[in-house]
Design goal:
Blueprint (H helix, E strand, L loop, with lengths): L1 E6 L3 E6 L5 E5 L8 H14 L8 E6 L5 H15 L4 E5 H9 L5 E6 L3 E6 L4 E3 L5 H4 L5 H14 L4 H10 L4 H9 L4 H14 L4 H26 L3 E5 L1 H5 L1 H11 L2 E6 L3 H10 L4
Helix pairs in contact: 1-2, 3-12, 5-8
Length: 281
């Protein structure tokens, strides 16, 4: 048996490769999730997949797993929860590459709660800009756009017709917004949830322009440097947010001379195809 997991900051999708059965638990980013949260999710997976022994391989692709210390921590937690020594923990970026590019070289981006990008040569990640996290980075992501919307709403610079809509969509007071951003767990997840407003009102000029501005920032901070070192003009993207704003993503790609081949809301099916094709642990 082979189990794969793709984990972002919002959700984790787990799948038995052979059967294709899958379940979804909360997002497990080691920078935000406790050991208890990891172990609880793993317990749910063991019960749902009826895992009774340790004779299986496990591949966990997760946000926040690029740091060696966190990678070791996640490996230890999964090993403890499942009792298997065949555990491989990789970044969600590598999972995205394998899911949408397989064995082909391309630029690969993630646009979900957070954002990232790399150049994948068909076997491994060859170039990847430094990720600066949800406060300093995440340009183009749902988190970044949600933050911009909230800034404009609280400052009163959002168009008047949308301020009333935003109030109805998120009936929170100023102190409640501040508490959610600065004191509650997973502030990146909360900010990303606000991006739904831009998607739901995407035909409004303000909302579409806010998304486009953020996508161009993502290109400037991440994609442009990768193109220069890789000389690659093919882009594949993973992320639920990317799938929702595909037509705006196409506008930026066309303007910048990029060819977008694949956009996958969830990489898990592509990862299954990759693991069925390749030798696992």
């Amino acid at each position: 048996m082979t189990i794969i997991a793709d984990s972002g900051s919002t959700k984790t999708t787990w799948m038995e490769v052979e059967s294709g059965n899958k379940i979804v638990t909360e997002g497990l980013n080691p920078y935000f999730s406790t050991d208890e949260a990891f172990l609880a999710a793993c317990t749910t997976v063991r019960q749902q997949f009826s895992i009774l022994n340790s004779q299986f391989s496990f591949f966990f692709y997760g946000a926040g797993c690029g740091n060696t210390k966190q990678q070791k921590r996640v490996t230890a937690l999964i090993t403890k929860a499942f009792g298997s020594n065949n555990v491989s923990v990789e970044t969600d970026m590598l999972g995205a590459c394998r899911a949408v590019s397989g064995d082909e070289a391309s630029l690969v981006g993630i646009l979900g709660t957070g954002s990232n990008a790399c150049y994948y040569n068909g076997q491994k990640i060859e170039y990847q800009p430094l990720s600066t996290g949800y406060i300093l980075g995440d340009h183009g992501s749902a988190n970044h756009i949600g933050r911009r919307l909230l800034q404009d709403y609280l400052s009163g610079s959002m168009p008047n017709n949308l301020i009333e809509k935003f109030q109805k969509a998120y009936p929170m007071t100023y102190p409640e917004f501040m508490d959610a951003v600065y004191h509650q767990p997973n502030p990146n997840r909360f900010l990303a949830s606000l991006a739904r407003f831009a998607v739901e009102n995407i035909n409004d000029d303000y909302c579409s322009s806010e998304i486009l501005i953020n996508l161009y920032e993502w290109y400037n901070y991440q994609i442009d440097s990768l193109r220069k070192v890789s000389h690659c003009d093919v882009l594949n993207v993973v992320g639920g947010f990317a799938a929702q704003i595909r037509h705006l993503l196409d506008i930026v790609a066309k303007d910048k001379g990029l060819t977008i081949k694949n956009v996958a809301a969830d990489p898990i099916d592509g990862l299954r195809e990759y693991h069925l094709k390749h030798i696992t642990l």
